[in-house]
Design goal:
single chain; 264 residues; mainly beta; 8-stranded antiparallel beta barrel
């Protein structure tokens, strides 16, 4: 049905009156922007951050500055078990470059014996180690700062005569090592960390590491754990030129590290 033009003209003012309150309300309505979503996929300059447990086991051996007054009487050393466990954090700038921080309890053994093996000593040394490293792809290069925490010494002598024990012919003693006898160490470290299993938010790494201390294991040549001295003598059978640990005690170890993603 066609409406006359007069009717259409008359409806226009009525519609305008109805819409005016709505238009006025819309003009005073304040715009509130949506809250931006926090970007959790990046931390500062690091594209990825992973953290997880770390364990390695291997051998330690003092291969220089061994006890002995002369080369003919030089004692020998054999490898002994060493291990470390703790945790590590990897801050990845990109796939190729990163920074690693590792904290471990590091323990290693030092064994030294005379040419015939009848006289020997086995030192077990424990450290709290902090290891900052620079990662270049799978290779980590850095330092380790080792604080002595504990130790023990097993001493064996085939023929031993003490002033108050003239009939003693052998001697075996297991004693604690005071932390004052141990040196705080700075070590040069290199680690190869190769991913072997990769999941959605975690990776398992095979780790091979080597460390070389820049200082000797003991803080002096007259350790307090040497109980073989005469009551009237300051030197014992594991002191002076026969004191163990007067050289560095390097380690070679292998193990695993399981790293979880922190950034998502």
């Amino acid at each position: 049905m066609i409406r006359p033009p007069e009717l259409r003209i008359g409806l226009a003012p009525i519609l305008l009156l109805i819409l005016m309150p709505l238009l006025a309300h819309a003009q005073w309505r304040k715009y509130i922007p949506g809250k931006p979503v926090k970007d959790t996929s990046k931390f500062w300059i690091f594209q990825d951050v992973t953290v997880g447990p770390y364990f390695t086991g291997g051998v330690s051996r003092q291969n220089e500055d061994l006890p002995g007054a002369t080369p003919e009487l030089r004692w020998h050393s054999t490898p002994r078990f060493a291990y470390a466990f703790g945790g590590t954090v990897d801050f990845a700038i990109n796939t190729w470059i990163g920074i690693d921080l590792t904290a471990l309890y590091d323990t290693r053994d030092l064994y030294a014996a005379n040419p015939g093996g009848s006289d020997n000593i086995d030192l077990s040394l424990g450290y709290l180690a902090f290891q900052p490293s620079i990662r270049i792809f799978w290779l980590l290069v850095g330092l380790a700062f080792d604080l002595p925490m504990s130790g023990s010494a097993t001493e064996n002598l085939a023929v031993y005569q003490h002033a108050d024990q003239p009939n003693t012919h052998s001697y075996t003693e297991n004693v604690n090592v005071q932390t004052s006898d141990l040196s705080a160490l700075t070590e040069v470290r290199a680690t190869l960390s190769v991913p072997i299993i990769q999941g959605d938010n975690a990776e398992l790494y095979f780790v091979v590491s080597g460390s070389y201390p820049l200082a000797k294991a003991l803080s002096g040549s007259a350790p307090s754990f040497d109980t073989t001295g005469f009551p009237t003598s300051a030197a014992g059978r594991f002191s002076g030129t026969l004191a163990p640990g007067q050289g560095p005690l390097p380690t070679v170890q292998a193990g695993i590290s399981y790293q979880f993603d922190v950034l998502h």
